[in-house]
Structure prediction request, 456 residues.
Amino acid sequence: MSSPRALHFRGARIIDPLSQRDETGELLVVNDTIQSIAFGGRVDAPKHAEVIECAGAILCPGLIDPHVHLREPGGEAKETILTGTQSAAAGGFTTVCCMPNTSPCLDTAMSVRFVEGRAAAAASARVFVVGAATVSRKGEQLAPMASMAHAGAVAFSDDGDGIASAGMMRRVLEVCRSLDRAFMQHCQDASLSEGGLVNEGSVATRLGLAPWPRDAEEVMLERDLRLNGRLDARYHAQHLSSGGSARILREARARLGADRAHRISGEASPHHLLLTCDACEGYNTGAKMNPPLRTQWDINELKLAIADGTIDVLATDHAPHTIAEKSRDFASAPFGIIGLECALALYTKALVEDGVIDWPRLVCLLTLQPARLCGLDRRVAGIGTLTVGGVADLTLIDPQQKWTIRADAFKSKSRNCPFDGLSVRGKAILTIRAGEVLFREDPVAQPQRAAVATGS
Ligand SMILES: [Zn+2]
Ligand SMILES: [Zn+2]
Prediction:
């Protein structure tokens, strides 16, 4: 009889957001499970275990991205479930939640099962489906949310569009509450953003591009929070771009009180923390985003909101598009950028290096918080945490490794990354799902880092 597979991590800085421990120690994986953790000590590892020396590296739960676009079905020229999940694993993500704005839209139980089947065949990062709340995301008729939840949808969203009708929004929140699923809103009042291409202000004026005011986001956020005040659904505002939205969310959470504040949440994305609308100068379609990049004031407000816990979920909004599509003129090019393979370094730059939050908090916002938002522990015990007996989804991070973002080297099918060529620090070097290695950095490609070596 062969011995069970075992991985013995030694000398890692182990960060667990659930127990809030952050200490050097050892961790043992046997098959798909965390067998033991020794903070400040040693685990009793079997002789045949693969030893992974981790000096200088952070060992944490596998990263979870609650907001990606995998484009399959219908957009396979941009990305597939296979390439998207391989891209995720290369960025340190063991789990992604995919948005329903595919073609056809993910608005039936059958479509949820289709994605789950493709994800199982891809055998890379886990995929959970965020189902459409309305049929074809048109905002007119409720999707069969109960059967979709039963099939595996972990949350609902019409991402790509906000739900325009207040009446429909109220019904969606009622159904989400009854199903115990989060609703994730793409806050965009289309009557305010209509035709908009860049943030309302001097850049839009100078470039002669239609303006997209902050109000388009803030008005919908305020409306939703008001509606939800009576309904108490789990409400989540995606990709916040406006400093005003951060203030609105802060006040709403304060009104709910400390024990209820977690019922509403907001999400940040790397580009809204690192780029302003100035990046659109020269009609750079690489910086064309929905919601649009805004100003340094907005960045400052969003960072304050992350620092004080108002915004407590981080995502990528990984949105692949082909080179041909992004090569069109500014008005007709699609919105969005890819992010899975550089998000960790970009969040390190925007939040840790800038002193907004520390590593343990960053880990929490990239693991436990998205797991809680989507109720993922109902599906996989211990996901988003380091729990003895729980699933061995792990990411090993070299926080000091300097590297240059090269979109050409991405596993994603697309290249639309405005950070191409940027020097950054911090990289996932080993990504493990249920004890299986999904991604391991090639040591030959990174000769300057010698912290992690594999023995026996
Ligand atoms: Zn969106
Ligand atoms: Zn999105």
